[in-house]
Task: structure prediction
Amino acid sequence: MRNLTLVSGLALTLAFSIGANAQEGPIKIGIPVGLSGANSVVAPSVVQSSELAAEEINKAGGILGRQVELVVADDGSGAQGAQRAFDSLVYQEEVDALISMETSAARNAGLPIVNRSGTPYIYTSFYEGRSCSPNMFVDAWVPEQQVTPIVDQFMKELGAKTFYLIGSDYEFGRGMLEFTRQYIEESGGTVLGEEYLPMDASDWTPILSDVRSKGPDAIITSTAGGAPNVTLTKQMRNSGIDVPYGNLAVDEGTAASMGSDATGIYISQSYLTGIESEENKRFLAAMEEKFGSDLETPNDLSVPQYEAIYLYKAAVEKAGSTDKAAVIEALPQVSYTGPRGDIQMSVQHHTPLTMYLGQVQEDGSVEVIQRFENVDPGEQCPNL
Amino acid sequence: MPLLLDIVTTSAILFIVAAGLMIILGVMKLINFAHGAFLTVGGYSAYLVTDYGFSPWLTVPFAALVGFVLGIAVERLVVRPLYSRPLDAILATWGLGIVITQIIVFAFGRGVQFAESPMSGTLEVFATNYSAWRLVLVLVAVLLGLGLTALLYLTRFGLNARAVIMNEDLARGLGIDSTKVRITTFGLGAALACTAGALITPLLSVDPNMGLPWLVNSFMLVLVSGVAIPGLALASLLLGGAQVLVSTFVSPILGGITIVVFAAILLRIRPKGLFGG
Amino acid sequence: MADFESSVSARNRRRFWLVGFVAVMALAIVYAAPLFLDRYLVNVLIRALFLAVLAITVDLVWGFSGVLTFGQSAFFGIGAYACALLATHYGFGPLWFFGAFLIGLALAAVTAWLVGILSFYHGASPLYSSIITLALPIVLVQIIFAGGRFTGSSSGISGFPTYYWAVETWFVIAGTLLVAVACFAWLFVRSDLGRILIAIRENEDRCAYLGIPVSRIKIALFTVCGAIGAAAGFGYAAFTNVVAPELGGFLLGTESLIWVALGGRGTLIGPIFGAIGIDVTSSYLSGSLPFLWKFIVGVLFVIVIVVLPNGFASLVTGAWKKFGPGRRSPASGHEHGSGSIVLRTAPAGTREVTGDQSPIAIEGLGCRYGSLSVLADLSFQGRSGELLSIVGPNGAGKTTLMRCISNGQERTAGTVEIAGQEIARRSPERVVGLGVGRSFQNTSLFDSLTVGDCLRLSRYRVDGARLFRRTSHVSLPAPALGILKATGLDRHLDQETRYLSHGQKRGLELAMVLATEPKVLLLDEPTAGLTKAERTAIGEVLLSLTTTYGLCVILIEHDLDFVREISDRIVVLHQGRMVLDGSVEEVVSSDLVKSVYSGHGTEVAS
Result:
């Protein structure tokens, strides 16, 4: 009985997939994203840039002549929600690929489903690194690319020797700061303290008191986006701590809306709105035109998402079909020139990127202090 | 010295945040689990005021007004049928909290909003620079404690409220309109909660869940206090102090449960709280 | 349990058949469903089935026993983390897997047991247990956070080794677990012990004074429910291959309350459908309208709590009662001999009163509340077959005296001996064990239980209670049977007590107290609110208790005429002190008593 069902099921799927190709139905791209929860602040900008990419591709005739359809699902920024979202996208919506910016918890929870179904998955969020799957590709930065410019700046330009590290207690927070500590120590600096609070914590008083009593030369933080980042920055400014402050998790838009509290923060990004390239200017203009007053400031999460959809397009075109295995084969070989420059996920499923070190100004804008060309992501997944 | 300031200011914040919950529990014998949502409403009131360009100092009276109106509406619609079912009242107000939070999401989105602070930076006390706003909150807590005491002992409403607290049937027999006392109390409690929400925004982000983490701690403090103003002050100092000490010397994460754990133990030993009879 | 075969009545057998039939049908559905449902729905349903198991435990603890628990999610979390942590850090294989399962269950059971001991002591307010259950998930989540890399902190753990069985297999596992737990829960709540849970919910104090070990029963229930919750959590984690702190968190705890409340607390089936319905719907709406859905659930929850406290199940059962077949009017218990319960005479003399020992001896008893002294230096003895009345003006300390005799934790000085045994600091249910029966001033009984149920549960101390069965008979001592006959209650055994008259309630209460086979009977104003005829009847009953059965009856009474008629001896209390202990004549003629009562003339006249 079982076997029979299985066989007939297989036959059905086969028939269906052949039929689908012949019918030229839309190519479905699943976008699990944190519409609620910690990522809800940045999620709208990610959805917007995805919509722009899909619209542009569709206007230009689609991928292999087929239209692109986006399916957005809320992952609640956490593991439980991500499982529902991935399940729904893979098994209910039967998407051809998953392209998303998510928390590390959500990504880890979704990966088993990705692996079980063999779906190509482009992860577009910067993250703590070393997450490896034959189905997953990453077009955003890892600590090796992001942390080094800030630490170098603090130690070489500002003469900092002692550091204090504060983070949210989750994989990104810990992963980033562990790399930071290692890099600081390798460079001859000392870490006076490394403290974490849970993602939903809002009272940083005891940690800040500890910072004041230890008196570090510089502080580097790596919290979850949104509320924890804001509360930490506010409370730090309110407590009169006034040393160089590098924030690994703040984006341009959030920095701007935080007002005076954000002034002076150092950030290190692969994308800033001020990048002077044709592609970026064209991208910003198109976003402005499409979303007008509803526009969420494009940022280092929404731009990789935009580029990833084009990378997927290129891979499908190279493979000649949406066949999952063929697309996965093609993904590391294709490249796309987007707002951040030439993007190719060629190094162990990760991407060499041009990084910018910036500082938030009084008016909320970010001034680029230094630019680092094609920073290598290093050994992320040596087995891939 | 900064440690002492941390303890005092943390206690002050806890006192301010829990006061509204205590007033409602004291007079109405009702645990308001929408308290967290009321705090959030206060935060958003503050955001609205500064977003429209008014002075950040106006956030407090505006939040109080919003809270009072909200409280009266909630008492009339949800709370009134539940006086005889105290455990159900906890659940209904919890559900109400969910509803209020979702309405806020519809109105303002899920993201973090920024309310302008009335003052920022530090003040120098006892030869240390310390967060100015936290110091202001100590002053506010003291004034609030004195104000509430005065309200209870020096006004007609306070007299009626105390009568209802002691013996509601008797109070009604004496011609005190207990319905009116209750609706006023709930309005007052909600107003205090919203004010507290507005007062803590300079230290926090304004987001739809900002009030939630405060709910359980406030609840515990109020129970430990024995539902009395000096009791609440003492409970805030003791448990707030314990929280700061544990956070500083043991682990900031365990600091987060200090109040809950200590309260559970204290209530086992003294079920009626510190100042309960 | 000699007459086991007759105790399993036809009714019991019918119930077992019914439950068995439903279980088989449900299992058939569980096996067949994956063949018809699409894979996504099956995936979603597996999770929902595990959560429904959790909902059943919430219903048992809250719906049936009345303990508002926010913490059931903690046990779910413990089970889930046991699965993830052992597989991640220690090892994986059939033995490891099963071992982790047992460890999770044991850990949850121990936690629940400790929490139970902490929160269900005698005299704990219902609020206190709620506070502890609220604290529990918060503490658990912080412990998980504090675990750093080991527990994965906020991110949780995912991708640990587990059994990647086909979803159909997982569906059958989850479904079978749910059906099994639901059926056992069903048998359990319909059993003798299940009735006792309801009695505890309705009047915990009264249960304690009937000798029912309320705290122990609650702790045991909480422990078992903790273990079941952990089993559900373990399955959930093994299937989803992800654990996160939210699985053990306060929000899941409140969510489970919402499922139970919407489905209908105290119905078992309501919470199951509540959990599955809400969880599956939110999975479908998570993409399109996550916030609107949450809003709707919130609004529904508030409405249900305010206007429909028994949830949507009550709409269904209400309609069933109105329009369904075999409807019964509430008064249908009037029909004589519906046969569900048979009264028998208990073997006499389980409590021989030894001749030379006083059934009750009080020595130097005192009771203070802070600086207020309510009773001081009280000493007297009661003899077998004696009716001892305690009189005194309001505030003399009469009821306090009753409390000090029946609850070892009340007095602040002196000793109370029952048949030679010190009551020490015993809780009421254990004082009942020594042979003290107490009736109360008010007649609040267990509204939704029948007369027969009430009598059966009052025999818990002597006869125990069946875990999954309903016994068909109650053995009562002769005096209790006598009262039931005298009041005609023996013909209304199927009637719910709320429909009884005041006099019948008094009679039932007395019969229940006597069913515990006391040596000393404490009666607090048994004639209050009774008619003259009922009063006379009670008087006769009391006389027969002392003369025929040799009980020692201690009576508090305001009606001095009544006291004069039936008492053997009278103790007069005034301002917490004993002013006189003597025969009826001595007391009546005493000037001292008149002066005590001066200003209370109305009471003397009554």
Summary: Confidence is low (pLDDT under 50) at residues 1-22 of chain A. The first strand of chain A starts at residue 27 and ends at 33. Chain A is about 45% helix and 20% strand. The first helix of chain A runs from residue 2 to 23.
